[in-house]
Amino acid sequence: MSMGARIRVTGRVQGVFFRDWTVDAAEALGISGWVRNRRDGSVEILGFGEEAALRELVGRCHRGPAAAQVERVQVEAAEGEAPPDFTREPTV
């Protein structure tokens, strides 16, 4: 079943290629949506896909890329229309 999730990752997650890593992970899992940095130092992800794929992405976010130091991963359900692919968006 396809669903949506908004994921917020905090810790040392900017300047460590977290967004590029997320794009690669999401594409590999068949998830569409986007990832962006937030001015508060977190990374925000909006993903749409199969429940198992989203769970896997959340699990991977707890580790992140090698240089990241993830402190917290928050997940909430998201609604909306799934975009056709997964993109890296500007900081907000």
Task: Describe the 3D structure.
By secondary structure, this protein is α+β, with helices and mostly antiparallel strands. It is built from 2 helices and 5 strands; from the N terminus they run βαββαββ. The chain has helices at 18-29, 51-61; strands at 2-12, 32-37, 43-50, 69-77, 86-88. A 5-stranded mixed beta sheet has the order 4-1-3-2-5. Helix 1 packs antiparallel against helix 2. The protein is globular and about 30 Å long. 29% of the residues are buried. The mean pLDDT is 97.
Topology:
Layout (H helix, E strand, L loop, with lengths): L1 E11 L5 H12 L2 E6 L5 E8 H11 L7 E9 L8 E3 L4
Counting DSSP H or I runs of 4 or more residues, the number of helices is: 2
Main sheet, how many strands, which sense, barrel?
Answer: 5 strands, mixed
Uncertain segments? none
**String of helices and strands:** EHEEHEE
Q: What is the first-to-last residue Cα distance?
A: 30 Å
Query: What gyration radius follows from the Cα positions, in whole Å?
Result: 12 Å
Strand order of the largest sheet: 4-1-3-2-5
Give the CA-based shape.
globular
Q: Give helix % range.
A: 25-40%
User: What do the pLDDT scores average to?
Assistant: 97
What percent of residues are in strands?
A: 35-45%
Q: What structural class do helix, strand and pairing data support?
A: alpha+beta
Counted beta strands: 5
